[in-house]
Design a protein that fits this description.
By secondary structure, this protein is of the alpha/beta class. Helices cover 21% and strands 33% of the residues. It is globular, with a radius of gyration of 16 Å.
Length: 136
């Protein structure tokens, strides 16, 4: 077996899906692919999907849905990939122009940069240079 080529989906949870939808669509410009009021909203980000579920609804058994139930408590974390420090800085300026607090600006030991903010549900959202993980 060969290792998988990429992560296809990233999942986070939000108690207020309407606020999450506005945030990821308006702040990041992500395309809404599918949504079901009160249950989930799905976004496309490049070749990956960002799935946002209501944590309580995603844990509830549904005899008509064979997908294993999932969910979590508390905030999560994920990182959007950008190609340069210049892009990280543009995102920082964009967040500040929208009145979004920058929680942290990080210079990593390998010279890469990241910036951290929180979404309306408290999830930690990072925008970081691809070089952080030295992708091939």
């Amino acid at each position: 077996m060969h290792p998988p080529k990429a992560i296809l989906e990233t999942v986070i949870y939000a108690d207020d899906l309407n606020a999450a939808e506005r945030f990821y669509h308006d702040v990041f410009g992500l395309e809404i692919v599918r949504k079901l009021a009160g249950q989930f909203v799905f976004f496309r980000c490049g070749q990956q999907m960002l799935l946002i579920f209501d944590p309580e609804k995603s844990r509830m058994a549904d005899p008509s849905n064979p997908i294993p139930r999932h969910g979590t408590n508390g905030s999560g974390h994920f990182c959007f990939r950008v190609d340069s420090k210049t892009e990280v800085d543009r995102w920082r300026d964009h967040f500040l122009s929208l009145g979004i607090e920058v929680e942290h600006y990080q210079r990593w030991s390998n010279g890469s940069y990241s910036i951290y903010i929180r979404d309306p549900s408290g999830n930690s959202v990072e925008v970081g240079e691809a070089g952080l993980w030295n992708p091939q």
